[in-house]
Write a structure and sequence with these properties.
This protein has 2 domains: 7-47; 64-109. Helices cover 59% and strands 0% of the residues. The chain is built from 6 helices and no strands. The longest helix has 14 residues, at 34-47.
């Protein structure tokens, strides 16, 4: 997904459209696509502001503070199963129990490796 347009460019686009210039003319003048101009005008009408909105999706269950707790758990208990880790992490962080696949992705993200004894 490309980065959102800068706020100053968004303001210039809306000013030109409100000044009576067509979407095609604004797109050509500012070297953006016509669909970007149309989308921005729709966004302005719907939300009432020009700031980019947060992309859709779920918020992460664990925060940066929880990552240190997870690292300590893995350091102390290196030979547990993923389901055991899920239960312990849920108890320690007071968050809902995560699935084994989520725990596996979390370990990859934190670059944690489990050494079986």
């Amino acid at each position: 997904m490309p980065a959102p347009l800068s706020l100053d460019l968004r303001v210039r686009i809306i000013r030109l459209v409100e000044g009576g210039l067509s979407h095609d003319g604004v797109a050509e003048d500012l070297d953006v696509s016509q669909s970007a101009v149309s989308s921005l005008v729709r966004h302005q009408n719907k939300h009432g502001h020009l700031f980019p909105i947060r992309p859709p999706g779920n918020t992460p269950t664990l925060t940066e503070c929880d990552y240190s707790i997870v690292r300590e758990i893995v350091k102390k208990n290196s030979d547990l199963t993923l389901s055991d880790y899920a239960i312990i992490i849920a108890k320690e962080t007071k968050k809902p129990v995560m699935s084994e696949s989520t725990i596996c992705r979390l370990f990859k993200k934190l670059d944690l490796r489990r050494k079986k004894k």
